[in-house]
Amino acid sequence: MTHLSLEEALAFNRSCPVVDLHCDTLLKVGPDRGLGQCRADTHLDLPRLGEAGVSGQFFACYIEPQHVSYRALERTLEMIEAFYGEAAANPSRLVPAVGASGIREAHREGKVAGLLAVEGGEALQGNLGLLSTLYRLGVRSLTLTWNFRNALADGWQESRTGGGLSRFGALVVKEMERLGMLVDVSHLSDAGFRQVLEETSGPVIASHSNARAVCEHPRNLTDEQIRALAARGGVMGLNLAPGFLRAGAGRPVAAGTDGGEPVKATLADALDHVDHIVQLVGPAHVGLGLDLDGIYSLPEGFQDVASLPRLTQGLFERGHSPETVRAILGGNFLRVMEEVGAV
Q1: Quick check: 243 pLDDT over 50?
Q2: Which of 93, 145, 186, 195 fits a disulfide with 165 by CB distance 3.0 to 4.6 angstroms?
Q3: What confidence tens digit (pLDDT) does each residue in 122-149 have?
Q4: How many CB atoms lie within 10 A of CB 8?
Q5: 237: β partners
Q6: 1 found inside a domain
Q7: CB under 8 Å to 17, separation ≥6 — which residues?
Q8: Which H/E stretch holds residue 56?
Q9: What total number of domains does the chain contain?
């Protein structure tokens, strides 16, 4: 067991690339509401990413339910434009990137590499050709569904039907592999998870999902799923939504959020998920997918992204080696990006 001060934990974060696979902060970007200044109504911005020692941040383009039926692609493009606008406004701190090399370069330069993900296959509007268009715009990860059914697959809230990938969804994941994109199974039904692995050959990710054996919630992965993900070389990202950390959440979900009504959870609960995954499949298959600005509340002791050194402290206190902590903080996701061709 190693005890680090917060200053030592931050220094450790800054010594290696730290990568978070999921935030919803683009939902809160707008005129006079940019990433360049600290804001009380967000969990994440550029100053606090710097305070946390984050080198790579995936920004999700989440398609809210009110946009799904008639303007999913338009809404996605609005958020992509907002991202590039923020990069242009903050060139000394935020650099657009499309893979692992961009994150490593940003780390060397003391900047944040911003990468784009789309949360919800509705953005494709049933057109496979639009996937390569999004790829050309810099999108390197696609979460196939949110909670419900779309043209690609069933989300977890449709699990009672037993439905998984559609024929179109199978084509999409094959094309994502060809392009070198991260196939993201978070939010997917259990049947869909299994079928994604049947339709792909390389590693896939669960960008922001926890362990169901620790917290019984269908948004979390079963031990069987975690083993299957690991056998393929994939990685899952620790989600800080209290309802996915500890049993006892209120209503299951609200539009634009993941965790239901606030329940008490702590960083110890989050570390329990990490420990379970490491004990189950080893340290090479867990990373960070914190879901900041997409959840109602955070674990006690974790106020915003600047609190990330507290998680690093906890990993060392649980007995994880420096090599394991580096892998969890970012090394595992960098490896997967390189393996799928997102370099």
Answers
A1: yes
A2: 195
A3: 999 999 999 999 999 999 999 999 988 8
A4: 15
A5: 287
A6: no
A7: 55, 56, 103, 104, 107, 329, 330, 331, 334
A8: strand 56-62
A9: 1
Amino acid sitting at position 6: L
Identify the pLDDT of residue 60. Answer: 98
106 lies in some domain = yes
Q: DSSP 3-state assignment of 94?
A: strand
For residue 214, CA distances in Å to 33, 58, 273, 332 come to 37, 26, 6, 22
Compute the Cα dihedral for 87, 53, 289, 283 and give only its sign. positive
Residue type, 258: D
From CA 315, how far away is CA 271, in angstroms rounded? 7
CATH of the domain at 43: 3.20.20.140
Asked, for residue 163, whether it belongs to a domain, the answer is yes
Task: Tally the C-alpha atoms within 13 A of residue 104's C-alpha that lie toward its C-beta.
Answer: 11
- How far CA 199 is from CA of 170, 172, 184, in Å, comes to 6, 10, 13
Structure tokens belonging to residue 20: 């978070």
E strand or H helix at 206, and its extent? Answer: strand 205-206
Question: Of 60, 52, 100, 102, nearest to 83 (Cα)?
Answer: 60
Backbone angle region of 120, left / alpha / beta, with phi > 0 → left and psi within -120 to 50 → alpha: left
